[in-house]
Amino acid sequence: MARVAITEFAAKKLCFGDVYTGVSVTRETLADAVSELSEDGTYVVKVDAGIKKRGKQGLLAVNVAKKDVSRETGALFDKGFERCVIEDFVSHETQDERYISVELIRSGARVFHSLKGGIEIEDNMDSVEMHLIPLAETLSAIPTIGIEGVPLADLLQKMQEHHFSFLEINPYLTVHNGFTALDMAVEIDSTKESKLPTWAQEHVLHKNAASEAEKAVLEQDARTQAALNLHTLNENGSILTLFSGGGASLVALDSLVSADLQDVVVNYSEYSGAPTRDETEAYVTTLLSVLFESKAANKVILIAGGVANFTDVMATFQGIVDAFKTDIETIKSQNIYVCVRRGGPNQEAGLAHLRGFLAENDVSHDVHDPSLSLGKVGELVKKHI
Amino acid sequence: MISDIRNTKANILVAGNHVKIIQSILDFDYASGRETPSVIAIISAGRKSQKFFWGDGETLIPVVESVEKLEKLEKKPNFLLCITSASSTPRMVEAFFAQFPGALGAHLFAEGIAERDALFLVKQYGDRKLVAGPSGVGLCIPGSLKLGAIGGVLGERLADLGANTGNTAVICSSGGMVNELMYQVVAAGSGISFAACYGGDRFPITSPLQWMLEAQNDPQTKDIVYFGELGGSDEYVLRDAIKDKKITKPVYAYIAGRYESKDENIQFGHAKALAKAEEETASAKMEALQEVGVHVGETFEDFMSSFKDLSKEVARETGARDWKKRNEAIKQTIFSAPVYPPKSHGASFTESILLRILGKESVSRETVAFADMIFAELIDHGPHVSGAVNTMITTRAGRDMSSALATGILTVGDRFGGAVNGAAKVWHEAVSREMNAEELVNDYSKRREYILGIGHKKYSVYKPDPRVTALVAHGTSVLRETPHLTFAQSVAALTSKKRANLILNVDGAMSALFMDYLVEKEGYSKLALTELIAIEFFNSLFLIPRTVGFVGNYLDQKHIDEGLFRLGEADSYNY
Question: Between residues 156 and 185 of chain B, which touch chain A (CB distance below 8 Å)?
Answer without folding.
Answer: 172-177, 179-180, 183-184
